[in-house]
Amino acid sequence: MLCARPSRSPRFSEGGEDDDYDESKTRKTNLCSFPVRPLPNNNNITKSLFLPLTILTIVIVLIIIIVMFRNNLVCITQSDHLNLLRMDGSNSDFGSLGVPCCRSKLGQTVEWTTKDLIMGLEEFIPIYETRPIKNNVFGMGFDHSFGLWFIARWLKPDLMIESGAFKGHSTWVLRQAMPEMQIISLSPRHPKKYLKKGAAYVDENCTYFAGKDFIDFGSVDWKSVMKKHGILDLSRVLVFFDDHQNELKRLKQALKAGFQHLVFEDNYDSGTGDHYSLRQICDQSYIRGGGHSCFRDSDEARARMERKKFWEKAVDIEELCGEGDSWWGVRGEMRDDFNHSNKEISHAEHFQNSRFVESVLDVYWELPPVAPSSLTHQTRYDPARAPDPIIEDGRFDLFKRLGLTNFETSVFNGYTQMVYLKISPTAP
Fold first, then answer.
1. Strand pairing of 361-366 and 182-187?
2. How far apart, in whole angstroms, are the C-alpha atoms of residue 32 and residue 58?
3. Sequence-distant (≥ 6) Cβ neighbours of residue 388 within 8 angstroms
4. pTM exceeds 0.85 for this model
5. Pair 387, 6: CB distance under 8 Å
6. 419: Cβ–Cβ under 8 A, 6 or more apart, which residues?
7. Superkingdom of this entry's organism (predicted)?
8. Cβ neighbours for 294, distance < 8 A, ≥ 6 positions apart
9. Could you read off the pLDDT of 117-171 as tens digits, one per residue?
C-alpha cells in the first residue's frame, strides 16, 4: 500500500544544546591549561609553544561547537510545524493533523514509481497545452488531468467508462491516453450543450448515455453493455467517477457489476465536500494517522486554526466537528446526490463502512500533487492533507525544465486527493 508518510525526528529545542553551555570552558585559562614544561634556560622556546597550542585548542573547540550547531539544524523537522508555519505558512505537516490511508486486504501497492510519474509528466505537459477547454472552472485542473491520463496510460484498458462528463475535459484526457480505445460516458447533461456557451469537447467515437439518454451508473445493465462492446474480461475496464455521488454507493455498484479498476476524482477530505468519500470512510482512529479530536484546546485544533490562515480549503475544528463532537464524513453526515441528501450516521456505522471497504480493497493510491505550493503558488488546498508532491520542494529547475512554469497558477488549485482503487470481492 502506497501511503508514504515522512519520518518523524526528535523535536528541536528552541535554545539548542548551547543553552546549558558552560562559559568557563572557553575561558583563556582553560584553553591554556595544557601542561607546557619550560625548557631550562630557554624562555623563547616556551613562548613559541604557547601561542600554537592556544590556537590549536581554540580550533578544536570551534569545531566541536560547529558540529553541535549542525546537529541542531538537522533536527528541524515537520514536527515543528507551528513554529515554522508562522514564517510563511507553506510548510507541509503531512500526518500531523491525522491523514487517513485506506488499508488494502493483501497489502498490495501500485507498480509505478515517482520516476515513472516524472517521465509521464514530461510526455503529458505538451499534450495538456493543446487542451480544447482552457478555462475548466469547476472541472479538473492540471494535477487530476495528469493523474487520470497517467493511470489510463499505464493500465491500457480495452474500455474506459466515465460517470460525470461536464464539458468533456475528462473525455478528452482519456482519449489522449488511449486514442484507439472505446469510451462510454454517462452524464445528466450532454457535453454538446456547453458548446453553445463556449469551449467543450464531444468525442465522435464515444458512446454517450447523456441528456435525454442518460442512465445512472447504478441502473445500467452492464452485462449487456459489455457484450455489445465485445468486452469479455472486466479486469480490462477502467471506470472513472466524477459525479459527486456517495463513493461507498459507487464502490458497491462497481463491485456488483464486476469492475476492478476505479478512479474517484473528488476524494474529499474529512470535513469537506458534497459527498461521502473513501478518504472520509477510511478516516478511522484505528488507522495510523486517522481519527480526530474535537477538543478546542488540542494540538490539532491549534494546528488547524493556524493553517486556516493560509489555505482556502483548510478546515478548522468548528468546521470539522458537529453535534456531539461527530467528525466523520462532514460533521457526522453521509452526503450524497450533489449535497441534496445529508444523512446523519453514527460512528459505529462509519466504522462498519471502513471495514467493508478494507474487505474488498486490493490497492489504494492517492495521486500526489504534481509540485509543492512553493512552486505552483496554489493557495486552495492544504498541503498538510496531501501526500508528498511528485516534484520535491526546491526543484524549480525540474519544474521549469518540464514546462510547468508556462501554466497559470489557477490550474494547480483543483487538487482533491484523487484516488485509484483496485477491488475484488471478499473470498467466501
1. unpaired
2. 10
3. 4, 6, 92, 94, 368
4. no
5. no
6. 263, 264, 267, 278, 279, 364, 365, 366, 367
7. Eukaryota
8. 317, 320, 321, 325, 327
9. 999 999 999 999 999 999 888 889 999 999 999 999 999 999 999 999 999 999 9
